[in-house]
Specification:
- The chain is of the alpha+beta class.
- The chain folds into two domains: 9-139 and 239-277, Clavaminate synthase-like (Double-stranded beta-helix, 4-Layer Sandwich); 141-233, no CATH class.
- It is built from eight helices and 15 strands.
- The strands form four sheets. Strands 1-2-3-13-5-15-4 form a seven-stranded mixed beta sheet, with helices on one face.
- The radius of gyration is 19 Å and the shape is globular.
- The two termini are 26 Å apart.
- 38% of the residues are buried.
């Protein structure tokens, strides 16, 4: 267990995942606790900052105290061609032009598996909430890997998986037109190890809805393994579910944490604002 700055208070939510961080806005924006927050994030996977009430400017400033802010995969280009610093998580196409695509967030996933270096972390703040649904769940794939029997760990050694946008899209459209499938397939797929051996010495499972198939494995056996690992990693002891309140901010370690939104009505006005931290190591 790490020791944190006296200016911030912490409370564990579950033994294997999640910590509430209590700190005043000035402390968070000063960056004096940034090192402790990053260390705590690595240890606990999900950090909850209740009721902060950050506006966009403060959310961006806080994000930048923690590392290099990522813009390259964050939203759609603005009129001047630049990427947005804030991504509006909304299913409403009048708020987010790719709102329909975000229905894929209802399924367990890790962001950036089609990239060599996924983002390090995401920060979400709640701006408007639906009358029902819309909670977010996270699953700790470090803890899930650690809890696997030794025989399973040995069996996973050396396995590689192809991660693809077309696999993700079939969760929301299991019978796509050929045009829709071709569009999804046009996003380059990427092959990674099934077990990410981090520079820290820790290992995590790289699974979720973007995992298309295990290289060299018969199709049914591949699906059997991927579904079994997903079910294993999303057992209650590895999962934290956050029931949002307006003003909450939640940050998670994207390198070893699956997440999903609980389905909600796209017309409900649910709106979260996201910032991200640039990745610092490739999946290896």
């Amino acid at each position: 267990m790490i020791t944190v700055d006296a200016a911030i208070g912490t409370r564990e939510l579950k033994p294997d995942i999640g910590t509430v961080v209590e700190a005043d806005v000035a402390t968070l924006l000063s960056g004096t606790a940034a090192g402790d927050i990053r260390a705590l994030l690595e240890e606990r996977s999900v950090l909850v900052f209740p009721g902060l009430g950050f506006d966009d400017q403060r959310q961006i400033a806080f994000t930048q105290t923690l590392g290099v802010q990522a813009f390259e995969n964050n939203g759609v280009p603005q009129a001047n061609g630049e990427k947005q610093a804030i991504f509006k998580v909304s299913l409403d196409p009048s708020v987010n032009p790719i709102g329909e695509y975000l229905k894929t967030s209802f399924f367990w996933h890790l962001d950036g598996t089609m990239h060599e270096v996924p983002i390090l972390a995401s920060l979400l703040s709640a701006r408007h909430l639906p009358p029902e649904g819309g909670a977010t769940e996270w699953a700790n794939t470090f803890a899930a890997y650690d809890a696997l029997p030794a025989s399973d760990k040995a069996a996973l050694e050396g396995l590689r998986v192809v991660y693809a946008n077309w696999a993700l899209q079939r969760f929301v459209n299991p019978e796509p037109s050929y045009e829709a499938f071709a569009a999804a397939r046009s996003v380059p797929a990427r092959e990674h190890p099934l077990v990410w051996k981090h520079r820290s010495g820790r290992n995590s499972l790289v699974i979720g809805s973007t995992a298309a198939y295990v290289v060299g494995m018969e199709a049914a056996d591949s699906m059997d393994l991927l579904v079994r690992l997903r079910d294993w990693a999303t057992q209650p002891q590895f999962v934290y579910r956050h029931e949002w309140k307006v003003g909450d901010l939640v940050m998670w370690d994207n390198t070893g944490t699956l997440h999903r939104a609980i389905p909600y009505d796209g017309a409900s006005g649910r709106l979260l604002h996201r910032t991200m931290l640039q990745g610092e190591e490739p999946i290896a």
